# Entry
Amino acid sequence: MLAACWAAAPVACLVVTGCSHAGSAGTDQTTPQVTALGSPDDVEVSVRPLIATYNPASQAPPVPPSQDWRQVPSPALPRDAQVYTITATGPADAWAAGTTGLNDGQALLVRWNGTSWTRPALPASTLGLSEFTSLASAGPRNVWVSGVGTTGNRPNPHIYHFGGARWDEVRLPSDVTGVEGISMTPAGNLWTLIATRAYPGEALIRWNGRGWTRFPAPSPAGGIPAIAAVADDDIWVTGWVSQIYHWNGEHWTPAASPAPSSGEGMRALIAPAHDDVWAAPGFNVGPATAILLHWKGRTWQTVPVPHAGSCPVTGIAPDGAGGIWVIPCQSNWLGAQYLHWQADRWTDVYASPPGPHRAETAQAIALVPGTQQLWSADSGPDGETLNLYTPR
# Structure
């Protein structure tokens, strides 16, 4: 469960493509020093980010907002909405999910059809949910969302499938007490990380179109906050930042992590390719520097992230061209800020005009398959807006 640094901020969704017209980072733009340790192999997960703190005393950033952003009206999002997760299957099909409000909100799901955002019809059981927490997709007729409500004082998890015409609830096994993450393979199989009543607590279940199959899960001391599935025999999960595990279809192998031991988990985990996996630890290594972990097929490396403020990176997405986009913590910055990693250097991109009292912060991010576009969710004082970034 993520905490908000300022309550009930309105939400906007953004689409990004490429990085022309972006300014250079205000601090060190040289290639960062990296350190490597050894270990094994890839996919993607939507992880719910923290909401950054707004500091009105901050100075404006050293680069202007990108001129390639344009706002798209998004009346389907209530003013107090929070978007935690986004998935897209193409330029004319995307989904964003979260809650209608931080206090006594209901689960929120909206869909982009190429021209507008709308709220779809949902099963009656979603009315009892306070939020949707994870989205995953493998095509316009294979989309999943997980959500949670409460029964008494206990969480009550649910999971739903969209097959192209309507949303249907898919019953979870009876011993499931929580859905901790979902990820889909390109072949369309859903892998779900669950918490159960039985020791040791965590397990993996795979939906094959007809039913669930259960698999063992590693048991790191801090639980498993993130999962990324490239194939049924190529899955990554993480526990605390020093705990990374790989599934080869038969057994789990622990991978040596270059991150220092910490009681923090990973904030995000993506795997654009078999030899290209990124993880975001939930801590900073300095007052304004976070790190990412990057698997390149043989070793894990640490990559410093500038402008991190006072909290860690809260979102990662591939850029469709071999790089990544990152949502840094923006506690010391004004405007919705993104960092683009390409050719071993960072570039700043601001999605809205920075300046006094402009408390725009990025919250979720996802690549549009087959393009270099990204959907991203922002929150700020100006109501619900969607922004499309298209390079010239």
User: Anything to note?
Assistant: The chain has a mean pLDDT of 77. The two ends are 39 Å apart (CA to CA). The first strand starts at residue 11 and ends at 17.
